UniProtKB/TrEMBL annotation:
Keyword annotations of the record: DNA-binding, Transcription, Transcription regulation
SUPFAM superfamilies, per database record: Homeodomain-like, Regulatory protein AraC
Keyword Transcription belongs to the record: yes
Domain named HTH araC/xylS-type: residues: 171-268
GO MF term list: DNA-binding transcription factor activity; sequence-specific DNA binding
The protein's name in its UniProt record: AraC family transcriptional regulator
Lineage start: Bacteria, Pseudomonadati, Pseudomonadota, Betaproteobacteria, Burkholderiales
Classification via InterPro entries: AraC-bd, AraC_XylS_family_regulators, Homeodomain-like_sf, HTH-like, HTH_AraC
Lineage: superkingdom: Bacteria
């Protein structure tokens, strides 16, 4: 997102239709944005530009780019700009039941003061805002929700009450992802083949393989894509064969994984091979 808000004049809100108990918005405001109100969801978000202020838990809080806002369900708050330039932010509204599905009966995480510098939660919130789109694959959205809930629990300082992790179940899920990486896979499918509850499986997969099921799936697709690209398959055909929605979908994930777009990577690899 562009961090320069000096040229923005009118207040605006852009929102997505709720999916699975999750709603996303992006907005820009000058002056007073919201009067005191409360809702029954978590409000978790990032200030993209400017200074965002809000009254919360008997104090005036300030959120800056690089921090994460976490407003607990049913806690009263308002919102206003901290400077004349206004502020721009993204927010995700998550039903407590969705968080509870991941945490499995633990107390709901609470972030004192409503603003945190926790880096894990910041990255999980960025991922959730990016991945919980209407066109995202179901496993991608489930991964984002699990990552957000676990990071939120960690940032709150809560102790896990889980039983020991199940390696055999995670291994069965991993093998299934390898065999099915060119198509959309759901967490329910992985739960069925692994013999484990979907959210326990999501947590255990991270424990044993260091990443989420969806990211693991995407990386297998990218491995296949790179091999096809090196064989001379065009990018559009590569994207389709590797299981991506289209070339732009593949490019977005390729850049996120390797830091450069696939066309540039291929040109650099080809140039190196001809020397």
């Amino acid at each position: 997102m562009d961090g320069d808000i000096g040229q923005l004049q009118s207040d605006w809100i852009s929102r997505s239709e709720p999916i699975g108990g999750v709603e996303r918005i992006e907005a820009f405001f000058h002056g007073n944005a919201y009067s005191m109100h409360r809702h029954d969801t978590y409000a978790i978000g990032l200030t993209l530009a400017g200074v965002q202020c809000f009254h919360y838990q008997r104090g005036l809080r300030t959120s800056l780019p690089g921090q994460t806002m976490v407003l607990h369900p049913d806690e009263a708050h308002d919102g206003q700009a901290g400077t004349d330039d206004g502020f721009r932010y993204q927010m995700i509204y998550v039903q407590p039941a969705a968080i509870q599905q991941v945490l499995g009966g633990q107390a709901l995480p609470f972030i004192e003061g409503g603003v945190t510098n926790d880096p894990r939660l910041f990255e999980a919130t960025k991922s959730a805002l990016r991945q919980m789109r209407g066109d995202a694959e179901p496993l991608e959205r489930d991964d984002a929700l699990a990552g957000l809930a676990l990071a939120l629990n960690h940032a709150s300082g809560a102790r896990s009450t889980r039983k020991s992790a199940d390696f055999a179940a995670a291994q069965r899920a991993r093998e299934y992802l390898h065999a099915s990486c060119t198509r959309a896979v759901t967490l329910d499918e992985l739960a069925a083949v692994s013999g484990q509850d979907r959210w326990n499986l999501s947590r255990d997969f991270r424990t044993f393989y260091g990443t989420s099921p969806y990211h693991y799936l995407v990386m297998r697709r990218l491995e296949a894509a790179r091999a096809m690209m090196l064989r001379g398959v065009c990018l559009a055909d590569t994207a389709a064969a590797a299981g991506f929605a289209d070339q732009s979908h593949m490019t977005r994930h390729f850049r996120h994984a390797y830091g450069i777009p696939p066309a540039r990577w291929l040109a650099m690899i080809s140039d190196r091979r001809t020397r």
